Amino acid sequence: MDTDAGTATAPAKPKSRPSPAETQEHTRFTRAVAHLTGYDERTFLLRIVQPALVGMIDGTVSTLAPIFAAAISSDSHTALVVGIATALGAGVSMGFSEALSDTGEQTGRGSAVVRGAITGVATAFGGVFHSLPFIISDVHTALIVAGSVVGVELFVIAWVRYRFLHVSLRQSLLVVTLGGAIVVGIGVSIGSS
Fold first, then answer.
1. Number of independent structural domains in the chain
2. Residue 182's domain spans which residues?
3. 10 in a domain, yes or no?
4. Angle at the Cα of 188 (from 184 to 189), degrees rounded to 5?
5. What is the DSSP string of 150-179?
6. What's the mean pLDDT when you consider all of the chain?
7. In this predicted model, what pLDDT tens digit does every residue of 79-116 receive, in sequence order?
8. CA dihedral over 47, 53, 55, 56, signed as positive or negative
9. Cα separation of 95 and 182, whole Å?
10. 12 — phi, psi (to 5°)?
């Protein structure tokens, strides 16, 4: 109660703290990461998680437009070829981009080559997984399966953001789904023209 102004004010909302079980799980995970990699959790985040997350997001989202455009305007085989080519090309591009954008010396993010390799591989995997359903010759069935795979990929991205960046899972799902929907919309529009 604010007696000087004569009005009642609500107490400040305390920041939500993790439950004891969450804290214990977090501590176990931190110890496991430190043991397996020799890194503390922050270093693991900067050197492994962040480059992999950038790659997963780029591979999953940026390859959607060409794959869906090819599927809608042509057939499953064309979508498969375009998808795999796009995923591999994006993997190389993102790997070089990550490696050349930061030596790691000033930022403490570790070896540029290692981060580039992590980003490149994650980008290629992100694009290849939703290309594979186009092995199915019926393009309509392949599109449904590919859409389901994309849904799983977007959930994994949202979970990684939740787990390591401490972003709300709901907010993260919303943002990554919006990004994916925009890119699919572009692919469908171009493929339908």
1. 1
2. 40-192
3. no
4. 115
5. HHHHHHHHHHHHHHHH---HHHHHHHHHHH
6. 86
7. 999 999 999 999 999 999 999 998 888 888 888 999 99
8. positive
9. 24
10. -60, 140
Residues 187, 193: Cα–Cα separation, whole Å: 10
pLDDT above 50 for 14: no
CB 113 within 8 A of CB 93: no
Number of other residues whose CB lies within 10 A of the CB of residue 36: 9
Q: At 121, is the pLDDT very low, low, confident or very high (cuts 50, 70, 90)? A: very high
Residue 83 domain-assigned? yes
Evaluate whether residue 120 is within a structural domain: yes
Does 82 map to a domain?
A: yes
Q: Distance between CA atoms of 78 and 136, rounded to whole angstroms?
A: 12
Give the residue from 24, 20, 43, 23 showing the smallest Cα distance to 33. Answer: 43
Q: What is the pLDDT of residues 44-66, one digit of tens each?
A: 888 888 999 999 999 999 999 99
Better pLDDT: 120 or 13: 120
> Taking the alpha carbons of 81, 82, 85, 90 in that order, is the dihedral positive or negative?
negative
Return the percent helix, strand and coil in the chain, to nearest 5. 75, 0, 20
- pLDDT at residue 173 greater than cutoff 90: yes
Q: Is 2 helix (H, G, I), strand (E, B) or coil?
A: strand
Copy the structure tokens of residue 123. Answer: 């980008």
